[in-house]
Amino acid sequence: MAATAVTLPSSGVPFPVSNTSTSAARRCLLLPSPLPRRALRVVASAAAEAPPKPTPPPTSPSGIVLVDPAEAQRVHRLKAVYDQKVVPLITEEFGYSNVHQVPKLEKIVVNCGLGAEAGNNKGLEAAMKDLANITGQWPVKTKAKKSVASFKIREGNTIGIAVTLRGRIMYNFLDRLINLGLPRTMDFLGVNPNSFDGHGNYSLGLRDQGVFPEIPYEVGGKKNGMDVCIVTSAKTDNEALRLLTLLGMPFSENIKSDVVIRKKRLKRHHFLSKGKGKGGRK
């Protein structure tokens, strides 16, 4: 049989076919035979045993990487320490009969006064961005309740910013405050154990927000301070002091908790004017 040329529909280029037999020419155009069942089973078992590929974290339309839901639901390490170690110790020490009597953290309020920067929109936005980076939550503006002429403040003007932290964000901020912020403070010798308000709430102040790693050291401008108020469910200051101590709060050992700072008693001549007129010293 003479040699014939076969044309594929896709390419359109003819190629010669051997003239051995018609069956051989037909065999050249057949598709490859499917895999046997045993090979399919081996491939399927290998695909099942292969570890799943890690899925990338979800992203928003703006390109910001969002938090994985599994990571967001993970218990913070400071919360785990409270549940596993602090609760049994403080229950045995104070003799609580119910687990609900054990003092716990309710919220942390972070306040930042701006002063002269309150009237500057750029300074206000920069301060809010810095506080949001430190705490992990966007702050709110605090307004003046009364007008004070000596401070050039009118009722309703923005005088500061504040943020209230609860839950996992609260434990995260307290952990970074204890282990990163306070140790980086200049000439730090511990916090004052006498700063309780009598109802189990503790307050402390920082002069510079640059002690947190979220604020770069190279950033210039005015250094803003911040006030931190830790609100607990403790009924007495001793219970709150023991709770914060077990959580790792570095209280100063040089300051005794029973020391009462007395103000200097003013005498009569302190209230008299310096002039020689009526009521003054002669």
Automatic annotation (TrEMBL):
Q: Do you know which Gene3D superfamilies this protein is assigned to?
A: 3.30.1440.10
Query: Which residues does the UniProt record annotate as the domain Large ribosomal subunit protein uL5 N-terminal?
Result: 98-154
A GO CC term attached to the entry: ribosome
* Domain (Large ribosomal subunit protein uL5 C-terminal) ranges: 159-251
* Keyword annotations from UniProtKB, A to Z: Ribonucleoprotein, Ribosomal protein
Family, according to the entry, reads as follows: Belongs to the universal ribosomal protein uL5 family.
Q: What is this protein called?
A: Large ribosomal subunit protein uL5c
Show the taxonomic lineage: Eukaryota, Viridiplantae, Streptophyta, Embryophyta, Tracheophyta
